[in-house]
Design goal:
about 80% helix; mainly alpha; about 500 residues; two-stranded antiparallel sheet; about 0% strand; globular
Length: about 500
């Protein structure tokens, strides 16, 4: 990453944490003024490229120099607003930036197919607001600003989901349900932040953590913990607070689903880690108990129940949505181990899941672009009619199962290793069983793609087609990453370990 940092003047590199948020917020206003969708996409593309670049610069600075504390307006924390970046949120920031860029490349043909021409510029504007909100949640060191950025991302997300109603009217209902549940989650979270302010008189997360270590906890901070866990758990689709997710993923525009599946729940999971380790601290009795009896237990239940629900789905995107709930369960299990190894494995799976789900939903978007694929039966014969997209889908699907030679195997191996270190044989058994369940529902889709014959239209089978290059390129990059980072696992494993050590100290 050092070569990226060296490309910038030192003064500009210093402001990279602020630029990551400011650029998409300003660009959102510019995109809204564009007269057509293509110009709106160009604004989004330039913005996403800059965001990806600066997010990688921030990651490079953190890996080389350590913690970054950026004071907005020059006001010293805890009284001023601080952007605080360590290895944990630098990794998530870079993930959101890079995946966001790949999704914007994918967006040009996909959005053109699903969103009315007159609304496309506004669609890209709302997307950039959502991107800025997710980046803001990731990088801010202020507890109240976590709430502000959560709402910025959520409100714009409700909008871009609802804009899929031109293709499927059910997008309106999905957006409305997400709005109601998202508002409940945000309310719980901000009440928890209010309790923390009542107990400490501060909103700076590092300052709150230090005050709580010095003065100890009481009923007020315990109530704050409960409210914040529920609020962020809902945003992260933690079982059983996940009920908004299946419809939101199934009926949103394909571009929105690919972006949300790769980023939104990951950012909420990051925020949960931040509060548990940097604000409340894992050695406090009620926090320590929550690891095993809340997060690990909920993770195991999610892995089993959501995987079983996925098996019986007939809608391809809805199946992958339930799969996402199960995969969040894997992350929660890693968190619930309460160790550096467990948290590192959970973060590794967070990164890997973003890569595999991005490829899967982009492939479904490619199928939908030519054949309007929605149901699993619509996948029949696509291995012959769209071989490149089917190949990418297959690689990512096998990675989702955890087949060797894919990154899915790597993160599950590290989860199993961390569980064995704790002596949690029951967690290992659950990981294996849920992986077999994943094999069952992924096999249904792969069987339809490769084993079934293409349907006949007017007495003839459809001719082979290729997705547009703007779809093939980002989808191909993510599919290739599913294989590449198995053979070069030390890159992502090193980032995950650095992220976990940033908040656990290696213990």
């Amino acid at each position: 990453m050092d070569f990226l940092v060296n490309l910038l003047p030192s003064g500009l590199a210093h402001h990279a944490p602020a630029l990551v948020i400011v650029i998409p917020l300003v660009a959102a206003a510019v995109a809204a003024l564009m007269p057509n969708g293509r110009l709106g996409w160009i604004v989004a593309m330039v913005t996403a490229s800059l965001v990806a670049f600066f997010s990688l610069v921030v990651l490079g600075l953190v890996l080389s120099d350590g913690l970054i504390s950026y004071h907005m307006g020059g006001w010293e924390p805890p009284y001023g607003i601080e952007l605080r970046v360590d290895a944990l949120n630098a990794v998530v920031l870079a993930l959101v930036g890079v995946v966001g860029l790949l999704c914007v490349i994918f967006a040009l043909p996909s959005v053109g197919d699903e969103i009315e021409e007159g609304k496309q510029a506004l669609f890209y504007s709302a997307f950039l607001v959502a991107l800025a909100g997710l980046l803001g949640v990731t990088i801010t060191g202020d507890a109240f600003n976590v709430f502000v950025f959560l709402e910025i991302s959520s409100i714009s997300t409700y909008t871009i989901i609802a804009m899929g109603a031109g293709k499927d009217r059910r997008a309106l209902t999905a957006s409305y349900n997400y709005l109601i549940l998202g508002t409940i989650g945000a309310t719980f979270f901000v009440i928890g932040v209010g309790f923390l302010y009542m107990a400490t008189g501060s909103l700076n997360m590092a300052d709150i953590g230090q005050i709580l270590q010095e003065q100890g906890h009481n009923r007020v901070t315990q109530a704050a913990f409960a409210f914040i866990v529920v609020g962020l758990g809902l945003k992260a689709a933690m079982f059983p607070l996940h009920v908004w997710l299946p419809n939101a993923y199934a009926f949103a525009p394909n571009f929105v689903t690919a972006f949300l599946a790769s980023t939104a729940t990951k950012v909420a999971f990051y925020a949960l880690i931040r509060f548990l380790f940097s604000v409340f601290h894992p050695d406090v009795a009620f926090v320590e108990l929550s690891f095993t009896w809340v997060f690990a237990a909920v993770g195991i239940i999610a892995m089993m129940v959501a995987s079983s629900q996925a098996i019986f789905q007939t809608d391809a995107r809805r199946l992958l949505a339930y799969s996402s709930v199960a995969q969040v369960g894997y992350m929660m299990l890693g968190l619930g181990m309460g160790t550096a190894a467990g948290l590192s494995a959970g973060i590794l799976h967070l990164i890997n899941h973003a890569i595999m789900k991005g490829a899967l939903f982009m492939a479904l978007g490619a199928f939908a672009l030519h054949f309007g694929v929605r149901q699993i039966r619509d996948l029949n014969g696509l291995g012959r009619t769209m071989p490149a997209s089917a190949g990418a889908f297959t690689i990512a699907g096998l990675s989702l199962v955890g087949v060797p030679l894919t990154i899915g195997f790597t993160s599950k191996w590290y989860l199993i290793t961390a569980a064995l270190e704790r002596g949690w044989w029951w967690a290992v058994a659950a990981l294996i069983i849920s992986s077999l369940m994943a094999l069952a529902y992924v096999a249904r889709m792969l069987s339809a793609i490769w084993m079934e014959s293409p349907p006949e239209h007017h007495g003839a089978k459809p001719a082979a087609r290729h997705a547009p290059y703007m779809v093939l390129v980002p989808m191909g990059i993510l599919a290739f990453a599913n294989l590449y980072f198995f053979f070069h696992a030390d890159v992502l494993v090193g980032l995950a370990e650095a992220a976990a050590n940033a908040v656990t100290g290696g213990h």
